[in-house]
Amino acid sequence: MERNFQSAEELIAALRAGEVTSAELTDEAISAIEREDKAINAICVPDFDRARAAARAADAARARGEDRPLLGVPVTVKECYNVTGLRTTWGMPQHKDFMPDEDAVQVSRLKDAGAVLLGKTNVPIGLQGLQSSNPVYGTTNNPWDLDRTPGGSSGGSSAALASGFGALSIGSDIGGSLRTPAHFCGVYGHKPSLGLVANRGMVAPDTPALPVDLDLAVVGPMARTARDLSLLLDVMAGPDPLTYGVAHQLALPPARHERLGDFRVLILDEHPFLPTGSAVRAGVQRVADALADSGARVERHSALLPDLAEAATLYTQLLFSGSVARFPVEALEQLQVRAAGLSPDDQSLDASRLRGMVLSHRDWMAVHHRRELHRHGWRQFFDEFDAVVCPVTPTPAFPHDHNPELLECRIDIDGVEYPFFDQLVWAGVATMPGLPATAMPTGLSPEGLPVGVQVVGPMFEDRTPLRLAELLEEKLGGFQAPK
């Protein structure tokens, strides 16, 4: 495999052995971007001059005997992270000239680990949606099929990784924004446990970079191998030094098992709110077969599993309650009128989205209490199981759809159309209770598109789904470069 597609772990070994320099790796990555990114449009804010300077500094540091976790490794970051000297716009034209005055905490951690920042990757406007297109930077295409989306909102990062533009990237996830792009582009992404990774500086350009605790949303690593996810998570994880970091130190427990055959796994490929397409079901089955062949305990049903329909409803209400926080009063009043007109019998996801948009604080607290009951249910579930394997979305990457009215968009599942946002129910399996989830490729669809699954693990036991993904990677083959 050519060096641009090697893992970070392989590049670090080559750098330590003196087989290559960071300057060479950086020049090769920049050459690949300049040669191929016109068609992909993954790198929306290049930073090549400073990258070359950082690579030379990394080589000089290594010559002095220094060795940091990512010393000299070329990486990218999602556009929404503040980087001193680079624009942060979130794809919004009104902020096209915004320049932050300090790095996001995760950008600082990358730099402290010795990584070489090639630039920033594209996002949807305001990070809203499962595609990556905006009026500032244009549309990012899927390297496997330019007529399809790489996903969103970390779609630029997944497209960059699949194209060999850097060995690692960092993104964010609230509605599958790490996991969906990984699934669509055939790479790896890890949604950490809620609160495990500090998010300060991954913030909209009109918002102060404060050390706040986010509800549902996390930041996390993306890579071309499961082991690289673990490598990058070790750099990223830990409390913000301005808050919990004053008193807390991180001590993630080890993975529950080291052998594939020792894992106890529940397999899910059906959801009560919408069907799963045949290509994704086949990907889930490949994982189930690999587990069974290795002697793992594989189940398809469990009375301990928290109710998926209620979980999807809670997730939808929590997600959309945050989405309207800055709506004008007049728009909110219109939503309240529409929500009041809903029938109590209407328990559809469309109704849940509308109800979520107008939750009072009292109502939100009631939904949050039900979430805590689900979290307790998951704790009981993980006494008997180590992980859940399920879809990320019901289909592989779909064709570009630039309709700005996302609530009007549709997703085609084996020839039948469903509301676009309904596919978020699979992301919500892990997001609503705050569980860690590792997205990993399982092979290709009959159309030749990547198909992935997510491995969901116990709260703050992130090393368990990561280790299971690593073992499955050995069994199934892992990343493939786009043909």
Automatic annotation (TrEMBL):
Family annotation (Pfam families): Amidase
UniProt keyword list: Hydrolase
Occurrences of domain Amidase (ranges): 24-464
E.C. number: 3.5.1.4
Top-rank taxon: Bacteria
Gene Ontology molecular-function annotations: amidase activity
InterPro entries hit by this protein: Amidase_CS, Amidase_dom, AS_sf, FAAH2
NCBIfam families: PRK06170.1 (NF004816)
Name the UniProt record assigns to this protein: Amidase
Organism: Amycolatopsis silviterrae
Upper taxonomic lineage: Bacteria, Bacillati, Actinomycetota, Actinomycetes, Pseudonocardiales
